Amino acid sequence: MALETGEAATIANEAATEADVAQRDYSRPQHPQDPWESFNRPVYRFNNFLDTWFLRPVASGYRKITPEVVDRSVTNFFRNVGDVVSLANAALQLKHRRAAQTASRLMFNTTFGVAGLFDVATGWGLPRQKEDFGQTLVFWGVPEGNYLMLPVLGPATVTDAIGAVPDGFINPVNMLGEPEVYFANFLEVVDQRADVIPGEHLIVGDEYIFIRNAYLQQRNYLINDGQVVNDPFLDDDF
Questions:
Q1: 133-160 confidence digits (pLDDT tens)
Q2: Which of 45, 71, 154, 186 has its CA 20 to 30 A from that of 195?
């Protein structure tokens, strides 16, 4: 859940002012998947405050002191662990071919890739194919639900937020004891946040709308297996 990765940190630099928010609320139509914008925006500003004063500085420091090969290996390790979740959800969605490919990818990266530190499977024609329980719920007919900005965790939809619970139970990282499980989860968040720093300059205009539309477009892509359904609100005048 988060910019993918969501996954937990926003990538904006300054919060919007109350005056700006009020002006935008009256100057454009409401996104049909974001009826809770009046709740989501304050949560976004709270998350952005935490990101600006804590997470981004930590992630920036991590980028500076971590060799690129080590940083890539950390990312590969957590993606390999995430393939366990993807495998389970591909099977639940009856995507037999994708489940078989993910199982092969997991096996090759865990063995030849040294516990997932190296992504050998992608080079062998087995790219990462992310599946989660939120996608599984939608596959079985559960409506995706509204856009929701969660405190600390970041952007989600209702099904994405609900699906994070069972996904967390089957994630091998969460089977570690204390305090290792806390360190591992924190390292994953920092690694994901560090990976999006180079793309921060791409954010333009209303940061809340930019983050929301980027997230919903990503969910649209994942749920439809790459067959993106056009969203007229992606052309919002930021």
A1: 999 999 999 999 999 999 999 999 999 9
A2: 45
Domain count, the chain: 2
Summarize pLDDT for 46-78 with one digit per residue, the tens. 999 999 999 999 999 999 999 999 999 999 999
The CA distance from 39 to 21, in Å, is 12
The DSSP annotation for 105-125 comes to HHHHHHHTTTTTTS-HHHHTT
For residue 238, tell me if it sits in a domain.
Answer: yes
What's the pTM? 0.81
219 near 157, Cβ under 8 Å? Answer: yes
Residue 5 in any domain: the answer is no
Phi, psi of 156 (to 5 degrees): -160, 170
Looking at the fold, whether 170 and 226 belong to one and the same domain comes out as yes
Tokens of 159: 């099904």
Same domain, 56 and 142: yes
